[in-house]
Amino acid sequence: MEQILKVDYLTDNIKNKNKNDTGMALDVLPFLTKRTQEIRKSGFNKVLGEFIRKICEVKLDEKSLKNKELFISSEDNILSEHMADSVEFDNEDDKYDFIRFLSQYLFNQEEIKPVHPYIFNFIKVDKKLNNEFGKYASFMYESFVKGNQEIKNVFGSKETEDILTELVLSKMDVLEEQKNKQEKEYQPLLPAFTSLYQEDLLYLSKYKDYFLTSFPLLTHYYVFMYACQLILKFEQFTEADFQKVQPLYFALEMESISKRRKAADELEGFKFIKDHSINLFRHIHTISHLSHNIFNDDLYKRGQKIPFMPYSELNKRIKENGEEFEESFFRDVKQWIYKYQEWSRKKVTDDSNDLESAFKVLFNCLKAGMNAGVCEKYGKNIEDLGAGQFIKSRGSLGQILNIKHDFLLLLTAVSVKDKRIPLNELFVEFEKRGLAFDRYSKKEIITLFDNLNILDKKSDSGDAQYVKPIL
């Protein structure tokens, strides 16, 4: 009888490689098991250049830059020099002054300043970070924006009403077309959440100056919360709903909190994410094993990457095929549990009597058969991703999900958009984006909005208060 779960492949694969492996399944996160903390040390914004180039399907023509005959010392930025080479000057002093001016306009020390969305294409990645940050860029492109032509237009257009910027963009001809490779690397898992990101980004793009400063922060948040959501969903096994976002409680940076606050709660705040991040690597491997099944047969037989099928999706599809099919899959999972324990030499009690419990036993097998240090390092990537912006240490309370003043206003802007909305509806919009606030934080937010004059108070009733657009 044909195997529904590819037990023979999984057995051969793990024996041949002699290590835990995800096989042919697509990846879902760009994290590394050899934790480098570079995303924390170098900053999230370093990822954006490669991300935008993937969206626009271009690459920096480094050879074109290097081949230019430069008349000014290498202390000035090479891109400024390249643009100056295409402009006629009466003498070298004028050229020197122009390069100095461009460098001050476009660069902060060695960092390029995006004075137009198109400029994001020119943010470079240090060669030593190419692998790690390249993974982030591929993940972000495939999971958040792939195929969205409107977003490609935002970063691919040189249109501007600013004469200086128009001159600069007209001379920035060091990009060349590069089609993205066809084979997928990452499996998008949160369609409703990533659709919100696209909606928010496109709304902000209507306000150019604000967009230039807010786009990096918005993107950073969505990537961080996406990773948090995967931890929450994987821990729910077959009960997870990937169409819905499960909000986590944040605290405002300017408010003091106690251990009784929701943001410090073990189940509803960052403590849950931190405590369960060690399981992320284990869940990814467990689900990858289970994804080698008859539903992915065509791709499997062609030797191509197969979709990553979370517990809940797989369970639903199995049950749709009837009891006999479900029993066969259950037997295959039991067989793989036995085979895996045989390879890992780690014994785990298998008391499963249905598919859902068999998934959990398999997870426990991998938990026993994996190096705990490797799992911990992988999970701690999420702390590196959120550090300094969305995570804050609060003394004895430990790390708390944190929201700063500028991000609160950004979140309000994309939630309200162009028409005022009831205050209560604003908090619903926050929750759609993964943020929840307890009554103390809500009170602080209302006071802040009142001081900023973006709150219409019709009465003391929450239903009669409205938040005005702020862009």
TrEMBL record:
Top-rank taxon, per record: Bacteria
Entry protein name: DNA phosphorothioation-dependent restriction protein DptG
